[in-house]
Specification:
The chain is mostly helical. The protein contains 2 helices and 2 strands. The chain has a two-stranded antiparallel ribbon with strand order 1-2. It is extended. The two termini are about 30 Å apart. Keywords: Iron, Metal-binding. This is Phytanoyl-CoA dioxygenase family protein.
Length: about 160
């Protein structure tokens, strides 16, 4: 995804609703291995409690992992309409990896600077036969189960 400075709201909306970019074989096996290792280390040290505006559930038993610092009304799975106060603005240095759980509330504001803002987005989904994928997610697997690229060989 690339958010160029000066895009009109219509262009941004069109990209959001229709845009995607496929770059086959862009990452080498070494790069993928390093990414997996770094991401695993990051997840092992990640502290949800330090991110008060994050709310998601495990999905299986709807265990709420919401931080106690931030109260939201409703039960897990209820529709929630975010307001600006629900977001904490962060300055992210260029070259940073931003890891976002698929159910975490997040957004990115319009790029008003003179510099381009590049973001490479990887959607990682684990599952096999019988897995449940949230139907509220904007990115959906094809009906025939084909179309998502497997990073690792697995069953099926």
């Amino acid at each position: 995804m690339c958010s160029q400075p000066g895009l009109t709201p219509g262009q941004v909306a069109f990209f959001r609703d229709n845009g995607y970019l496929v770059i086959p074989n862009y990452l080498s096996q070494d790069t993928l291995s390093n990414l997996l290792s770094t991401t695993t280390d990051l997840l092992d040290s990640f502290s949800l409690s330090s991110h008060p505006l994050t709310r998601f559930t495990t999905g299986d038993d709807e265990t709420d992992t919401n931080n106690a610092k931030h109260e939201l009304e409703g039960e897990a799975g209820d529709d929630y309409v975010p307001v600006d106060e629900d977001f904490e603005m962060l300055d992210i240095p260029a070259g940073s990896l931003v890891l976002i759980h698929g159910n975490a509330l997040h957004k990115s504001e319009k790029n008003t600077s003179e510099k381009s803002r590049f973001a490479y987005t990887f959607h990682v989904i684990e599952g096999d036969e019988g897995w449940n994928y949230d139907d509220r997610n904007w990115l959906q697997p094809p009906e025939d189960g084909k179309g998502f690229t497997r990073l690792f060989a697995g069953k099926g």
